[in-house]
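Attaching the record inline, Q. Sequence:
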Amino acid sequence: MILDRTADPHPDTMCHYTTLAGLHGIIRSGSIWLTDVVGLNDPSEFRAAIPAITTHIKAKLNEGGRERFKKFVESEGLDLEDESQKLANIVVDATLKTCPAFIASFCDHEAPYDEENGRLSQWVAYGRFMIRFKQARLESCFNRVRSEHRIMLGFGHVSYYDGRVFSEPFNQRAEEVASGLIDLVLDKKDGADEKTFNSAINLFPILKMFEYRHEEEYRLIAHCQPMLDGSFSIKRTCYNNEDSVRQRIEPFLPGEVLPAISGILIGPQPNQSDLERQIKSLLELHSLDVPVACSEIAFRG
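Structure, as predicted:
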């Protein structure tokens, strides 16, 4: 299966913010590691679809032919809205447990000033170094990994959800999740589990709350089966989560990303000149001839 996230046009240049250690790792290995959503600063963003799914579940439970179920809910003193939300939460949890999601983030800076100097909010949040990638070369690497390894890989623009308006095609996907869940739980229809699952994995990781819309984020998203064969490179990581530690696999794009790099931008910090010399030496060591520049945004330590 290939995730349906490549229909929207992508910019020519994709910007990836990272730390100095991350920059060294990408240059030395020629690879990009993807981050387990469990380890994100705000993993709750993957629940942004729950309100929309809840609305669709409730609407479908109110359709004709569901009188017996509604009478059961009323007789038990239950609330249809609450029960619909519980079902929505269940499908999110089940999706992330059975098919873990991993992401790598990129930005599209349309404004010339942001393109030349980066964006202060990104420097503060994600690291003081930015790698510019040629989108076409980067996506070529994605396509190779997608075809050679047992991995579901998608690349697309994040949809920012304001809690009220759920834009297309994500509203349609939310309805598909709700429909599949009702077919599975109440009607026991054949294939309903796969329908629900496929709709869910195409929906959750590409959503983000509206207050982050200034990031103009694109995401590379990988869904890995719980058991991977030996053909795809993985590493094992542990995350503390509510006093429990769970071990997850973390895939990466092996090699070949260096030709996609078109430049390095050093963010606002006091030692830009020293860092510029160090990074140029690193690039020369790996035979990578790309420009290195320093952001003109003032450092405010």
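The two ends are 47 Å apart (CA to CA). DSSP finds ten helices and 13 strands in the chain.

More tomorrow.
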